[in-house]
Amino acid sequence: MLKRLPSLNSIKVFEATARLKSFKAAAQELNVSPTAVSHQISELEKELEIKLFVREFRTVTLTEAGEKLAEVSTKMISELKQTLSELTVSAKKITISTTNAFAAMWLVPRLNDFKNLHPDIDIQIKADDQVVDINHDLSIDMAIRYGIADLKNSHVVALVKDTFGLFATQQYWANLSDQSQMRLFMTQWKNADLLKHDHADFLSQLLGQEYPKPDFFEDENQVIQAALAGLGVAVVSKILVQQSVAQGWLCENDSSQVAWESPFSYYTILPKRHVDHKGLQSFQQWLKQQFIGV
């Protein structure tokens, strides 16, 4: 039996190394040298008299004992951080991960409404089209994702089912006399789960079997900007163009409005450590209210 518990600092170094699977990455996160991390891990292993890592060239792998300690230490440090934050910070800071397009075209324009309702909650947005592992990245408190929601996961909450349409400026529609001459803009998604769904499927449903070859952009924001510039027609989520349509900048073709109900949804997902976080529950409830009737 241990005579005393290891120091909190050694557990903190171990947790970062186990989560990032790298002495170098852990050192960067903790702002120390890789040598210091390696030394701290060695001392912890000596103190516990167990091997926690298998050291390989440029990588480290957890042993079975290391896996058990990693699970407990991650939960402990996360809960400690949250408790200290609640005790010492008057304004609750919440970091939300979401896509570049959703952040720019939908969330940011509406965020002031939430801040007026909850002035004590400080919302920070981290926009990135790469999926973040929120159970391991402790800097992220909630993710708003786009794709096929796994509603069997109790930490997932569906927000709204997406629908695609064709959007351009009024002038572009007025000048378009032949649909075959229409210039289409679409998104080439980075998310591997979205790439499984062929764009040809919904283009044929929107336009029939004969349609122009689309031009692709990296994200929906660029697609919408191209349409706003009067260059062509955005094949895009109706959720993301709400603001542009409301302002009269973009519209559907009055003579042939079309819509395709996609298999994709916007949904939230919480890490296990935050399932009872009051501030996140308030934000999640506000998001759901925004999509009522959409």
From TrEMBL:
HTH lysR-type domain spans which residues? 6-63
Its domain of life?
Bacteria
Q: Which one of the record's GO molecular function terms can you name?
A: sequence-specific DNA binding
Q: Where are the transmembrane segments?
A: none
Keywords in alphabetical order: DNA-binding, Transcription, Transcription regulation
A biological process term (GO) from this entry: DNA-templated transcription
Q: Which family does it belong to?
A: Belongs to the LysR transcriptional regulatory family.
This protein's name: LysR family transcriptional regulator
| Species whose genome carries this gene | Acinetobacter halotolerans
